């Protein structure tokens, strides 16, 4: 590893000022960054630890029921958060799949997002929850829908000097449920060949009033699946509805073949995982899934 300076930022202004120096990288848990520095993929001149910035370490339910999660909050802390478990179950599923317990103790939500891996487990769950990224920079604060945050592998809309402060998750309707599933060749310590998150809102008759589906590892960035969503909106919860949406999700993806799986295998997995994620949502809503 090349020599670099290390310091702790204690405020948002402090971090913005640090990012004004070229070659500065922010450090949260370091589970991606340190490995990238060891391999020579990243060669920072300076590393600035953001875990002392209060806004980045907070998890708050706002008075209107939205959830704001600081970017440096760890997967372990999120897995222990009762409100998140009850209202944002897909994210609860996802944070417990990241690496191992040791990795989860370090890994932050913001690091998972800003590393911008197409396979990042937390991202589809957040997109299914209509998450907004709150970004700080020299020009002030701005918000970006998370589905518009990614440009390509390792690339985001963050401009020079900007960083992620928090993620806002809007309050979900009363009859709403979400789920995240992924497939990995190994049970643990592996990244998703495909990941799928779904959220459905239903009315008293079991009609789906709103649906969000999002996928990981099937395109250069995590993606939303509008074709799948169109097959769900306004339909009754049923095995047929879910099967049609699951097949439609294949057309929302542009998977590649690589050393881990072929594009065809990934397409098959998309249909399986989207269907199962939708079934899991129905189960969480205590809904029968008729044929
Ligand atoms: C053994 C192992 C297993 C893993 N398994 C999984 C897995 O199953 N699923 C999965 O999704 N990931 C996995 N990962 C990847 C990693 O753990 C996650 O992506 C984690 O959430 C990254 O968070 P971090 O806090 O460690 O990020 P860091 O390494 O601290 O940062 C990652 C990147 O984001 C930038 N960054 C961090 N915070 C901010 C911010 N607030 N604003 C702007 N930029 C920021 C950093 O500069 C860096 O470029 C694994 C990693 C390891 C080492």
Description:
- By secondary structure, the protein is α+β, with helices and mostly antiparallel strands.
- 33% of the residues lie in helices and 24% in strands.
- The chain is built from twelve helices and 14 strands.
- The chain has a five-stranded antiparallel β-sheet with strand order 4-5-10-6-7.
- α10 (226-232) runs antiparallel to α11.
- The N and C termini lie far apart (58 Å).
- The relative contact order is 0.12.
- The mean pLDDT is 96.
- The structure holds flavin-adenine dinucleotide.
In round numbers, the mean pLDDT is: 96
Major sheet summary line: 5 strands, antiparallel
N-to-C order of helices and strands: EHEHEHEEHHHHHHEEEEEEEEEHHH
Q: Tell me the β content.
A: 15-25%
Small-molecule components bound: flavin-adenine dinucleotide
Task: Choose one word for the global shape.
Answer: globular
Number of helices: 12
- Helix-strand category: alpha+beta
Radius of gyration: 19 Å
Helix percentage range: 25-40%
Strand order of the largest sheet: 4-5-10-6-7
Spans of at least 5 consecutive residues with low confidence: none
The number of distinct β-strands equals: 14
Architecture blueprint of SSEs:
Blueprint: E1 5-8, H1 12-19, E2 24-27, H2 33-39, E3 46-49, H3 54-57, E4 59-61, E5 67-70, H4 75-79, H5 82-87, H6 89-95, H7 101-106, H8 109-114, H9 122-128, E6 132-137, E7 140-145, E8 150-152, E9 155-156, E10 163-169, E11 176-183, E12 194-202, E13 208-216, E14 223-224, H10 226-232, H11 239-250, H12 263-284
Parallel strand pairs: 1-3, 2-3
Antiparallel strand pairs: 4-5, 5-10, 6-7, 6-10, 8-9, 11-12, 12-13, 13-14
The structure holds flavin-adenine dinucleotide.
The site of flavin-adenine dinucleotide has 30 residues, from β2, α2, α7, α8 and β10.
């Amino acid at each position: 590893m090349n020599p670099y300076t290390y310091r702790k930022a204690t405020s948002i202004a402090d971090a913005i000022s640090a990012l004004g120096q070229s070659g500065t990288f922010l450090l949260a848990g370091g589970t991606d960054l340190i490995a990238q520095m060891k391999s020579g993929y990243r060669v920072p001149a300076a590393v600035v630890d953001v875990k002392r910035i209060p806004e980045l370490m907070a998890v708050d339910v706002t008075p209107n029921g939205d959830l704001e999660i600081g970017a440096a909050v760890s997967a372990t802390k999120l897995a222990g958060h009762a409100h998140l478990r009850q209202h944002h179950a897909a994210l609860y599923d996802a944070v417990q799949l990241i690496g191992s317990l040791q990795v989860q103790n370090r890994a932050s939500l913001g690091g998972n997002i800003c590393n911008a891996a197409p396979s990042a487990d937390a991202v589809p769950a957040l997109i299914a929850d209509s998450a907004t990224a709150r970004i700080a920079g020299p020009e002030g604060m701005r918000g970006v829908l998370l589905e518009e945050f990614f440009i390509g592998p390792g690339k985001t809309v963050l401009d020079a000097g900007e960083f992620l402060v928090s993620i806002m998750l809007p309050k979900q309707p009363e009859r709403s449920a979400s789920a995240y599933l992924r497939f990995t060749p190994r049970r643990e310590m592996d990244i998703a060949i495909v990941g799928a998150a779904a959220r459905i809102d239903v009315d008293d008759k079991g009609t789906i009033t709103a649906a969000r589906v999002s996928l990981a590892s099937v395109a250069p960035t995590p993606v939303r699946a509008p074709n799948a969503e169109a097959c769900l909106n306004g339909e009754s919860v049923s095995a047929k509805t879910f099967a049609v949406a699951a097949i439609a999700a294949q057309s929302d993806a542009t998977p590649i073949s690589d050393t881990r799986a072929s594009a065809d295998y990934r397409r098959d997995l998309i249909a399986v995982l989207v269907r199962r994620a939708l079934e899991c949502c129905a189960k969480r809503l205590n809904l029968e899934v008729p044929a």
